[in-house]
Amino acid sequence: MRVRNGIVLAAVAASMASPALAQSGWRGIGRAQADPGAASVTITARDDDPYREYMICVEGGPARLLDAQVHYRDNRVQTYRIRARVADGACSRSTGANGRDKTIATVDIAYDPASLQGSRPRLELYVR
């Protein structure tokens, strides 16, 4: 019963967070599942539009995010130093996209595997 209640609460929290982000102009364009046995994950953007800023959100458990490398479609790479624990249902601070072509291809996110505490959170890329 506890597990089922926890799943229901997580689903309600996720459904409430998405409309709030959408109302503020943020759009989810990619996600990937973190693995406690790995130290990084790659999110592939499923959108070809340029955006001025981005952030990483965490759903399904906390994670200490270290760095993100943003790979743009014009082959440039921008390193984004996060160095923060992001709680379940929260997001990293936003940062501005650099350069002329601000179309994101992929984002490599490094995290501390021990910070996952055995969970497998979903890391989501939001842009606006």
- Count of strand segments: 8
Output mean pLDDT.
Answer: 88
Strand order of the largest sheet: 1-8-3-6
Number of domains: 1
The CATH topology is given as: Jelly Rolls
Return Rg in Å.
Answer: 15 Å
CATH class identity: Mainly Beta
| Element-level helix/strand string | HEEEEEEEE
Shape-level CATH architecture? Sandwich
Strand content: 35-45%
CATH homology superfamily name: Galactose-binding domain-like
Q: Helix- and strand-based class?
A: alpha+beta
* Poorly predicted runs of 5 or more residues: 6-16
The general outline is globular
Proportion of helical residues: 10-25%
The separation of the N and C termini measures 39 Å
Number of helices: 1
Outline the structure in words:
By secondary structure, this protein is of the alpha+beta class. The protein has one domain: Jelly Rolls, CATH 2.60.120.260. 17% of the residues lie in helices and 44% in strands. The protein has 1 helix and 8 strands; from the N terminus they run H-E-E-E-E-E-E-E-E. It has one helix at residues 2-23, and strands spanning 27-33, 40-44, 53-59, 63-72, 77-86, 95-96, 104-112, 122-127. It has a 4-stranded antiparallel beta sheet with strand order 1-8-3-6, covered by helices on one side. It has a 4-stranded antiparallel beta sheet with strand order 2-7-4-5, with no helix packed on it. Strand 4 (63-72) and strand 5 (77-86) form a beta hairpin. The radius of gyration is 15 Å and the shape is globular. Residues 6-16 have low confidence and may be disordered.
